[in-house]
Amino acid sequence: MTPTGRPYATGDQGAHILLVDDDPSLLKLLGMRLQSRGFRVTTAESGREALKRLEAARPDLVLSDMRMDEMDGLALFQEIQRRSPGLPVIILTAHGSIPDAVSATRQGVFGFLTKPVDRDELFATIDEALAQTTTANGEGDDAWRSAIITRSPEMERILEQARMVASSDVSVLVTGPSGSGKELLAGAIHKASSRADKPFVAINCGALPEQLLESELFGHSRGAFTGAVSEHRGLFQAADGGTLFLDEIGDMPLPLQVKLLRALQERQIRPLGSTASVPIDVRLISATHRDLGQAMHDGEFREDLFYRLNVVNLKLPPLKDRAEDVPLLAKYLVAQAAARHKPFVKGFSREALNLLASSAWPGNVRQLVNVVEQCVALTSSAMIPEALVAQALVAEENALPTFNDARAGFERSYLVKVLKITEGNVTQAARIAGRNRTDFYKLLARHELEPSSFKPGSAHSEAS
């Protein structure tokens, strides 16, 4: 038992400790002592090596010497905090002093122990750190994040931040490319929050025309507009007590941005056609694949709303940057699809998995889901072959795009065409397009087109 009356961590719990010390003999000795208590131990002889170990696998606790060449224990702790906020760190030193201890604990180091370390004190401190971490993380319950399949250190870091921010009611902006799982992350934050037993309501702000989007968000009274034959409760009211997820917030029209900002500031809404305000209690999570900084510069997104939404920003990486997750996701998805359609399908061949892992995935996880579904639908064998994956990848590349993607593609193609016709003359191009110069420049900036590259004699590679 520990001095606090709790049992020591044992092999049944198998907590993983990263042990860091530049003295190989002490590293070995302390590692053996920890293993004798049932801990899984990974060792590192420097701070740099410890950070590499962290990239490979996140431990439950870090136990580090203070005095080391190049990177001392405090510097290592600061880097750990940046990469893995909340990971407990205990620092050991043969040069213990009050200033060092005060500095370490003020910065968030869990414990500060002096060498030679008393065995009972060491294990009591470890036990307390692990117990507090377990309590803070909901006693190790990962149900909140069960929809997100990953072994990527970057994704684990994002999920750790998501877990920490879930406990507060601050607004969160999730950014990342289309199909990267922004709604899944928003749902996970909701499940980890105190609002988990209340509704999680989602809407795509780019999928509806302005008046319909306003009605969906804020509701309307009977007769508010043509076709409003009855009163309608909006999504703010539907999500009362829970979480409202606004996907593609960057596509919200400016007039609605004003109304949303007012609702967030006043914590109440006024349905269309109504003179009465309704109090609301919602946690807002929004998402976008657009560059809102550029949108603000172009006058397409309100700066005051941006800062209201972007209290915490979680940025999801594209699937190509977490290639280690592709085989894991593919195996999970094929099991799901097989259970629904073809129970005899057991998985992908090794060659097929290799092809999946090496693909670029411009459509991210959403594209991977489609490819797996196609493969399961078309296979006649238990193991899906490489050739079928290649076929599905080609079919996906030629698939009908979403409305937003198709519109963006048409816009860009049209702009390139008028710039070619006018040889880069923006005034003439804007006149042909029926837009004023300011709006036309905004369109060019959105599609990263430079008029000067279309002038005679200028080399460019834009497609017609």
Structural summary, described in words:
By secondary structure, this protein is α/β, with parallel strands linked by helices. The chain is globular, with a radius of gyration of 27 Å. Helix 13 crosses helix 15 (364-378). It has 19 helices and 14 strands. Strands 2-1-3-4-5 form a five-stranded parallel sheet, with helices on both faces. It has helices spanning 24-36, 47-56, 73-83, 98-107, 119-136, 153-166, 182-192, 210-218, 235-238, 254-266, 292-297, 303-309, 325-340, 350-358, 364-378, 386-397, 403-421, 426-433, 437-446, and strands at 16-20, 40-44, 61-65, 89-93, 111-114, 172-175, 200-204, 243-247, 268-269, 278-279, 283-288, 312-315, 347-348, 383-384.
> Helix proportion of residues, in percent?
40-55%
At the third CATH level, what is the topology name of the largest domain? Rossmann fold
Strand order of the largest sheet: 2-1-3-4-5
Q: Note the total helix count.
A: 19
Radius of gyration: 27 Å
Low-confidence stretches: 1-12, 459-464
Query: Which structural class matches the secondary elements?
Result: alpha/beta
CATH superfamily of the largest domain: P-loop containing nucleotide triphosphate hydrolases
Provide keyphrases for this structure.
disordered C terminus; alpha/beta; 4 domains; five-stranded parallel beta sheet; 46% helix; 464 residues; disordered N terminus; phosphoprotein; Helicase, Ruva Protein, domain 3; ATP-binding; Rossmann fold
